[in-house]
Amino acid sequence: MSKDIRIKKGLDIKLVGAAQKELDNAAASSFYYVRPEDFHSIIPKLVAREGTHVKAGETLFYNKSVESMKFVSPVSGEIVEVQRGPKRRIDAFKIKADVNQDYVNHGTFNLSGKKAEEVKNHLLASGCWSFVKQRPYDVVANPTLTPKAIFISGHASAPLAADLNFALLGKEKELQTAITALGMLTDGKVHVGVAKNSDSIFTGLSGVELHKVSGPHPSGNVGTLINKIDPINKGETVYTVAAQDLVIIGELLLTGKFNAERVVALAGSSVENPRYFTTKIGATLDTFIYKNGIEKGANHRVISGNVLSGKQVGESGVLDYYSNVVTVIPEGDDYELFGWNKPVFDKISPSRALTFSWLNPKKKYDLDTNTNGEHRAFVVTGNYEEVFPLDIYPMQILKACMYKDLDEMEALGMYEVAPEDFAVTEFICVSKQPHQKIIREGLDLMLKEIG
Amino acid sequence: MSLKSKLHDLKEKYKGKKMAPAFNALHTFLYLPNEVTHNGTHIKAADDLKRTMNTVIMALVPCLIFGMYNAGYQHYLAQGMIESANGFLGASFWTIDNLLIGAWTILPLVAVSYGVGLAVEFLFAVIKGHEVEEGYLVTGMLVPLIVPVDIPLWMLAVAVIFGVVIGKEVFGGTGMNILNPALTIRAFLFFAYPTWMSGDKVWVHGAVERDQMIAAGQSNLDAISGETILGSYAQNSTVAYDYWDMFWGLIPGSVGETSKFLIIIGALFLIFTKIGSWRIMLSTVVGALVMGLIFNGVVDAGIITDSSKFYGLMSVPFWQHLIIGSILFGAVFMATDPVTASQTNKGKWIYGFLIGFISIMIRVFNPAYPEGVFLAILLMNVFAPTIDHYVVQGNVKKRMKRLKVKAA
């Protein structure tokens, strides 16, 4: 059974440098890093101390407020350093990988006849719970809350996103197992959004409610899916899991091993030969970005994640816990003579104010990181609504977050949103306001005050 | 060393200093800054506030140029020195003489408006340590277009200071103001110096001066009459212009608001570039037509007879309200100011409609002065947040209802 969802409001940001469908193996990384900051709002309690040896899948730390929630090492090796920031906050675990990988064996987990509680405990103990996120607040899910439904997006619409059908090729068994397991956690359905007019790897799976999504970005965002299918009300929770993380969950249930392997797209206009790599969570990027990739030390930005919501990491950076794309684009730290009033042909614009991207909607652009203007107060109205498909007033909710009115934030729909839902409005913002940061801070405030 | 790197060094030098906002404002006029994104979206669309404001200014330029020709044309026409131009391309309109005298009177208005207004903006930016925001670029262009041609420059300067400080800066600057700054300036002039803002002498260049000369005893001169169409209607007298003159704009009036044709061209440009809100423009026009129809109906029903002092304006055919006075200029360039208008799409319909509706109502009933567009827009500026509140509440209620259905 499938239902169609047509998104009209949005903006497809077409960039040059999409990954070709070739798969390479990344060189083995000698060091791996796990950063607790990838798990937003989690306060880590250290388990694995400096100098100890861990197996792949062995606990590095757990969540201070939910002690059963473990976070595990992606590889086996020696913890050579626990890097700390101010107030002894744990910044990163630096793990020197063994040549021969050694996994913690959780044993095959047979789903038939298991209760929801058992599945949950297994995922928590094995470290796979870290892939289960929740709304409201867009954080790692609180296992004590029962979700009304689970949402998965099988349609990547973000600019230069990894093609899930390619990245997940041959993983049907893992996906099916993970979805069956997750389905046991909810009384509701497991909703999966797939692109219309394309064969998705999810189409053949059982136990899912399939939705064919069409339209411009953010049609592939899980937040859009939730809003169109079953919006979150106060007091309700939904779980979301990224498609690529289902593979890790599925493999754990099938084999008992936490295998942090992931197919990652290397994309962006600075990359000579953009393509896919098999690597692992926490691997250093230098293991695959240079070979037929980017020029070392050139003036470009390396992003773990996509250009809209990813994290700037630099060439010596690390693949973060959730990303399946690494994007490299040129930096834009240069002046442009009369850049504010001359006709613009080489940048994307939702308006036609001497900007000509509307003439050629299929053209792919090579955008850099220049802000194309300075930060200003909100002035222009009505343009966010053109690209924002959720049934929420975007500018009003952003302003409510800025003046920290909790009642208003709640009334306007704060439980339904995540920062990434505001990526397109941030991209087109004439006033160059940091929408995603504003929403993240708003969510953090609500999490702290309301919980 | 190139200009670019010289300016870059200067920018670094001023960084953190008091004068930094002032320098940056000038610098960013020349060069789009080298600022890059941090976290959040790593790429940004091409539009910024400068480009947006610049687009509005481009839409206004034809009105300004036409205003210059028209100032000269009305001046010479009233003195009987030239023939009436027949139509938009009339030979006696687009002449160098007209332009010269028009530019001579209007360019100082533009210079004072920008000079004084931007000085105030720079001052506040330096004191408060924020960047100079672009809001005044459009305001500074609008102000000379909505005042009578002979307004003394010192009055304009005082009004601009009042408008920018009280109308905008006290609320926190661009983006925070409740009232449209350009209209605040006009309202200040209107209430502080009413003799310079209404009557039959202020709309034609030289008319006031001529009056003063006659009063001083030069009885060989004839007074120049520069009655506007609204003025004629308000006094139940006949109108000396035909509809095409009104449409093309060959009539006395505030500097930039006379040519309906060029205003419509500007409106189409703003709608095409997606900078101006077509919802507000359209609904304002609809609101004005509805009010005009109501008045026509009242006259047709015989409730108001030609003995009433409102008869003249009430009996104006409803569509004609659009080509007299400043309703179109207000609808296209004033009501659409995004900061002071309604911010929701639904709200924009209501807001615009009420502006049109109330404009014509004030135009007809105002005993002192037969025009009400700027008052109507200022009034609706005040109510725009209320309109938005109820529109947004609709969305909130939907969410509450969803919750209740679940709970039941």
From TrEMBL, chain A:
The UniProt record lists the Na(+)-translocating NADH-quinone reductase subunit A C-terminal domain at 263-313
According to its UniProt entry, one GO biological process term is: sodium ion transport
Q: Which enzyme type, at the first EC level? A: translocase
Pfam families on file:
NQRA_2nd (PF24836), NQRA_N (PF05896), NQRA_SLBB (PF11973)
**Which controlled-vocabulary keywords does the entry list?**
Ion transport, NAD, Sodium, Sodium transport, Translocase, Transport, Ubiquinone
Residues crossing the lipid bilayer are none
- The EC number(s) attached to this protein equal 7.2.1.1
Which residue ranges does the record assign to the NqrA second alpha/beta domain? 115-258
* Record bears the keyword Membrane: no
Q: Where is the NqrA N-terminal barrel-sandwich hybrid domain?
A: 5-98
* Top-level taxon of the source organism: Bacteria
In terms of InterPro entries, this protein maps to: NqrA, NQRA_2nd, NqrA_C_domain, NQRA_N
Q: Listed GO molecular functions?
A: oxidoreductase activity, acting on NAD(P)H, quinone or similar compound as acceptor
Q: Which reaction does it catalyse?
A: a ubiquinone + n Na(+)(in) + NADH + H(+) = a ubiquinol + n Na(+)(out) + NAD(+)
| Presence of the UniProt keyword NAD in the record | yes
Role played:
NQR complex catalyzes the reduction of ubiquinone-1 to ubiquinol by two successive reactions, coupled with the transport of Na(+) ions from the cytoplasm to the periplasm. NqrA to NqrE are probably involved in the second step, the conversion of ubisemiquinone to ubiquinol.
Assembly and interactions?
Answer: Composed of six subunits; NqrA, NqrB, NqrC, NqrD, NqrE and NqrF.
What family does the Swiss-Prot or TrEMBL record give for this protein?
Belongs to the NqrA family.
What is the recorded name of this protein?
Na(+)-translocating NADH-quinone reductase subunit A
UniProtKB/TrEMBL annotation, chain B:
Q: Where in the cell is it found?
A: Cell membrane
Keyword check for Hydrolase: no
- Where are residues bearing FMN phosphoryl threonine located in the sequence? 228
Q: Which reaction does it catalyse?
A: a ubiquinone + n Na(+)(in) + NADH + H(+) = a ubiquinol + n Na(+)(out) + NAD(+)
- What cofactor is needed? FMN
Q: Identify the GO cellular component terms for this protein.
A: plasma membrane
Annotated EC = 7.2.1.1
The membrane-spanning stretches of this chain are: 52-70, 103-125, 145-166, 178-196, 246-273, 280-298, 318-336, 348-366, 372-392
Main subcellular location of this protein, as a coarse class: membrane
Task: Kindly report, in one word, the top-level EC class recorded for this enzyme.
Answer: translocase
One GO BP annotation is: sodium ion transport
Provide the membrane topology annotation.
Answer: Multi-pass membrane protein
Superkingdom classification of source: Bacteria
Keywords attached to this Swiss-Prot or TrEMBL record, sorted alphabetically, are: Cell inner membrane, Cell membrane, Flavoprotein, FMN, Ion transport, Membrane, NAD, Phosphoprotein, Sodium, Sodium transport, Translocase, Transmembrane, Transmembrane helix, Transport, Ubiquinone
Q: NCBIfam families recorded for this chain?
A: nqrB, PRK05349.1
Entry-linked PANTHER family: ELECTRON TRANSPORT COMPLEX PROTEIN RNFD, NA(+)-TRANSLOCATING NADH-QUINONE REDUCTASE SUBUNIT B
The UniProt entry's sequence similarity note says: Belongs to the NqrB/RnfD family.
Quaternary state and interactors? Composed of six subunits; NqrA, NqrB, NqrC, NqrD, NqrE and NqrF.
Function text? NQR complex catalyzes the reduction of ubiquinone-1 to ubiquinol by two successive reactions, coupled with the transport of Na(+) ions from the cytoplasm to the periplasm. NqrA to NqrE are probably involved in the second step, the conversion of ubisemiquinone to ubiquinol.
This one is known as: Na(+)-translocating NADH-quinone reductase subunit B
| Species of the source | Nonlabens ulvanivorans
